[in-house]
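Worked Example 4.2. Read the sequence first, then its structure tokens.
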Amino acid sequence: MKERVIILTIFLITGCCVITTAQTRLSREENLFRTYFDSAPRPAMDSNPSRYHFAGADLAKFKKDSVSLSRGIALLKMGKPAAALPHFQRSVENMKNYVSNASEWYLALTFLKLKKTEQAAYLFHKVAETEIHPYQNEAEVIYQRLTRPGKR
């Protein structure tokens, strides 16, 4: 009887350690996402911010796209990347003539969270190559980690 208790105890302790280790070992994508996700987007680092003064219909469209971006960020923060994806895709597409910096960044993070590594790497590379992008340095680090085998 004593042997059974000892064996059962060892089995339970070993099982708990294995479960804990498995839970703490995150995928490369999840690790990068947790490191770089921030729900507060950075402002554009534009040398000519006056060109972003809108009038009439353009202002209404810009506000609508900004709301879409905010909704996407909120969904991503809640752990719902699939639901956030269309919001970021819409923002990137609609805001490409204005300020799509934050939209591209969050779209890349969404692809990362969804483990769509090729799409994420493409966007991180694009952001890293964009002059004065507010996420340029971080995007370069993530891109390098995604494209270099064995690096985490």
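Now turn to a second chain, presented in exactly the same format:
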Amino acid sequence: MNRILFSGAISLIRSELGITDLKEKVDYNKESANLFKISRSQENLFNEDLQYLLFGQIDEKIIPYSWIQASWNYIDKFRCSFGFNLAEVLLYPMITIVGTPDIPVPVTKEQENTIKKSLESLPEFTIERLWIKSPEELAVLLDNRVIQNERFEGGDVGPHAPV
């Protein structure tokens, strides 16, 4: 049922943005205000346990598969959604940005700020950034969370987090 509702929300977002071709490129940063309004209209989709792990992507590629593999125990344990789409994160009250802004395929600071700006009036939404630079660091951080049964911390987390 939730997958059908989620799929319907994504279809609504694409429709509201005028996206008819699934291959059409969209600058989601420019559309964040519209996406925010649309996602908030889908309140029946929200559940406080929903979490999205946002991995980086650039025009040429998405983050290497090794990063997803490094996250798999965590994804499996806590049943998180994951992906590369800035529009999808607006449907999740817990957002985890994976990696520092300077890794080869990052979620940029500009993208992070766009997400934060879209959600600034919603205290029930929480964002964290995992400040790690490799799949190995990611595996250590997330496997420790699995062992400790600690799903989400919020804020800047990890060995390279700003002080």
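Notes for the reader: Confidence is low (pLDDT under 50) at residues 1-8, 36-45. The beta strands are 51-54, 81-83, 94-98, 126-130, 155-157.
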